[in-house]
Design a protein that fits this description.
Elements (H helix, E strand, L loop, with lengths): L1 H38 L14 E7 L3 H19 L4 E8 L6 H14 L3 E7 L3 H5 L10 E3 L5 E3 L1 H12 L1 H8 L6 E5 L6 H8 L8 E9 L2 E2 L6 E2 L16 H8 L4 E5 L4 E5 L1 H5 L11 H4 L4 E2 L1 H8 L2 H5 L1 E10 L2 H7 L10 H17 L3 H17 L11 E2 L3 E4 L2 E4 L1
Parallel strand pairs: 1-2, 1-6, 2-3, 7-13
Antiparallel strand pairs: 4-5, 6-11, 7-8, 7-11, 9-10, 10-13, 12-14, 15-16
Amino acid sequence: MYPRYKYRRRTQLKRLAWILLVLAILWTVVEVTFVRKALDHHAEAPIELSSQRIFITALHWNNEPILRTHWNKAIYELVQVIGKDRVFVSLQEGGSFVDDTKGALRELDFYLGEIGVRRKVVIDDVLHTDILDHRPAHVEPGWIKAENGTLQLRRIPFLAKLRNQALEPFYELLEKGETFTKILFLNDVAFNTSQMRALLNTNGGQYAAACALDFAKPPAFYDTFALRDSEGHEAMMSRWPYFRGRESRQAMKKNQPIPVKSCWNGAVLMDAAPFYTAVDRFAFRGISDDLSLHHVEGSECCLIHADNPLSKSRGVFLNPTVRVGYNASAYSIVNPATQSPWLSVFDIVRGSWENRIRRWFWTDYFVRSKIAGRLSQWAADRKGRDEGGRDCLIDETQVISWNGWAHL
């Protein structure tokens, strides 16, 4: 009797396994069909760049190759479509030393001048080594004392200061009565004008900020530091569909504007209104130095969205149809010349199931709890203080080094 029962049990389990396998295959086929169809859909662009007044700004450091092969040409074409009287270009170069970034930007400066585009291109000869060789005698804002007793310059406040310097012409023009509708923040990426037009039209033009999707080594996306999904989680994986949060994940699969808490991803269009209406000047920042001593860090490109009063009312969106690259190879892979979708069937199947399995068996609860504990400890040290960009915080301390930046 017992052997017969055991045999029946084994047969039932096999039958159940086959049923689950068939259902998984059918589920996958339907999902792949749905995603591939969504990838073929391209929304119309009712808003034209020439109807906007756009302030373009970027930081550059040791990135001559992309400037000469893509970026300079793309900017030159973009400003002409916007219109020379409706655009201003503000570029901040930060002590490049391994290539001729300075020369590439001087060439762009010359050619923009030839067509009458207003601009400010700042070339800085101060290297990281110059800054680090002249450390202050005592701790100053933006500097922290490491465990070995040395003073270290924090990376994020340093970058925030550069971004705010690049925005100075924006406020100088305001004093003269000139305003802009949008601010376009660009990284050293390959892009084209049609992509910026699509970015402008994200969510029908209704947003506090709209971001591209950036790549350096596809299929992995690049900017994991600043991206937070609709629930405030970091990206769960570097491959498509990236997100843990259901709203963000489903929008990614539908190839629609993706609601997120924060993004940067190589190219960002922000509504300019908050930069005009804030009582105190709305600006980039880092978390406080004493919070960073708890081994916590947050990107200035994330904190700007946390501070933006329009983020909750108008939303922050990632546009999956706008894909930029930090090199020619990455750009061509995610923007294929043929009409075929940029994601293969294999990419969709692998990504969907990897994402599903990660959500079933992995949680970021413990990581988030650790950060929350450090934040609570910092807040308890002095009553009344808080950090509004808590979703931006990660378990790191970043400082400037002679050749870039490093972890403490």
